[in-house]
Amino acid sequence: MEKTVAEQWYTEKNKQYDDLRQTAERLLETLLKENGISYHSVTSRLKARDSYVKKCEDPKYESPEQIMDVAALRIITQTTIEVEQVCRMIEREFAVDPENSCDKANEMGVDKVGYLSVHYVVCMSPQRLGLKEYSRFEGLCWEIQVRSLLQ
Q1: Model pTM?
Q2: Is the pLDDT score of 8 beyond 60?
Q3: Cβ neighbourhood burial of 143 (10 Å; 0-12, 13-18, 19+)
């Protein structure tokens, strides 16, 4: 993809994705509390412009919308049991893109040591998009990483 296309797209969309990031962070903290799931932290970030443009240079990306981690959140729990609880909650509360979501532990195999985390690419669920306060995020996806402190 052309660098100018990526730069223009980022300039036009970064405020909307930053709003999504902040809203999703508050929503996840609320959902965790309401579901009685203990957690260590919920953090978020907006991909930096230079990082986004560099990622767009990869030939596998044909359009700016194919970059799914413009907004990204990380939930860190105390235990792996809580990771499983968080994952079930995410699958209930959001529209999960199964093709772009994965469990890094499954990819690594049992005889390897390394980065362990569950990665989801999600969008707001149709029910949530029906609410005025979330309707502005229609069509926007973001990444959620879930891991325990020990992972």
Answers
A1: 0.88
A2: yes
A3: buried
